[in-house]
Protein: Metalloendopeptidase
Amino acid sequence: WPMPSASEGMSRTGNHQMIRSLLSIPSFWQTEARDTIPVHPESDSTLQEGDIVFRRKRSAINCDSSCFWPKSSDGLVKVPVNVSTEFCKLLVYRTWIAEAMQEFTTLTCVQFINRTTETNYISVVPGESCWSHFGKIGGMQQVGLMKTGCMSKGAIQHEMNHALGFLHEQSRSDRDNYVKIMWEYVIAGEQGNFGKVNSNNLGLPYDYSSVMHYGANDFSNTSGKATIVPIPDPSVPIGQREGLSNLDVAKINKLYNCCSNVLHKPNDTFSSVNYPSSYPDNSNCLWLIRIPQHQIFLQFDAFDLQPSPDCTSDYIRVYDGSSRNSSVLLDKLCGMGSLPSLVASRNVMLVEFVSDEATAATGFQASYSQGEDSASFTELGDISNFCLANIHVQN
Ligand SMILES: [Zn+2]
Structure:
C-alpha cells in the first residue's frame, strides 16, 4: 500500500497536563501524534481527520458491509493481526499492543487473532505518525504506530478502532450539541481535521470519554488555547487514551451486532438476550463485571439453557477474572435448575454465554452484589508474549 508520508508534531499544552493528571497517565501518553499530512502526489490514499487513510474511491461516511470485518458462525468477529518485529523486540511495546488488543477481545466480540494465512488482515507497523485505514479495505492493511507518540493502550485502540470502522467522536453529526470548535485556534491548513460527517451514531450517546475523541488542544496554533471546548461545561475532560470507554465498547458491539457488556455498578441484574423469550442462535455474549474494590457475589435467579451432553451446544461459563484466560469459577453449564452462588476472589468477574445454531430456550437472569471486604486487583498483561505465541484467546 502506498504509505502516506507525514511529519509528526506534538501538542503539549496546559490542558493536556490537566487531563493527564486527572487520569494519571504517564507523561509520554500526552504526546499524541499529530499528523501534518503532506499526501504523496501519486498516492491513491489521503490522510484525513489527522490519522485516517481514506481511499479516494470510498466515501468516508458510507462504510458498506464490505467495510466491516465478517462475523464467524460462533458469533465472533475475528480480525487477523500481524505485528512488526520492530515492536516485538521490546517488551514495553509488545505489552502495550497486547493489552490494547486484549481489551477488545475481552469486552467486545471483536477478537484480534494472530494472522496466519488469512487474506484480509491488519499489519501493525512502526510509523512516522499514528494512522489507520477506515474499516476493512481488503487484503493487507497497515496500522501505523509511532514509537514515541502512540504507545499507550488508548492510542493503539484509537487506531485499531478506525480499522474496525469508527471515525472520530467529535466528527459525529450531532457534535455541535456537545462541543464547540474554536476555529480561530486551529492551525492553518488543519481545519479539515475538525469536519463533521453524516455519521451513523448507532443510537448511542455522544461520548466525551471515548478514545476516539480528540484532545482539547489538538492542532492548536496557540499554546494554552483549546481547539475543542465541551459545552456547556468546558471542564469536561476529552481526549483520554487510557482505554476503551463503556460507550466505545457498546458502540463496537452494536456496530457488529454483538451482545457483550461491561457492568460497573456495585449491584446489578442482567440476563440473556430477549429473556424471558428465547435467546437467539449463534450468540456469544460476555458480561464483564468490574466494580470498585470489592469482591463480587453472583447468583442466577433463573437458568434454562438447551441441554446437551457436556454442554457443547449452549452453555454458561464464569471466570474469576477479566478474560477468558482467567481461571474458571463455573465451567460449561446447561439445562435447567438452580445454581449455587459464585464468589469472585476479586473485583472482576466474566460471565460468558454461548448458543449454537439450533434450539434455544429462555436463557438466564443473574444478579450480583459486592462483598464487604476490599479485594481490588489490577490484572497484569499475561499475554505480553503474543509476538511469540498466538494472541487469540482460545476457550
Ligand atoms: Zn484518529
About this structure: Confidence is low (pLDDT under 50) at residues 1-46, 56-60, 379-385, 389-395. The helical segments are 14-23, 85-88, 91-107, 153-164, 246-255. The chain is about 15% helix and 25% strand.
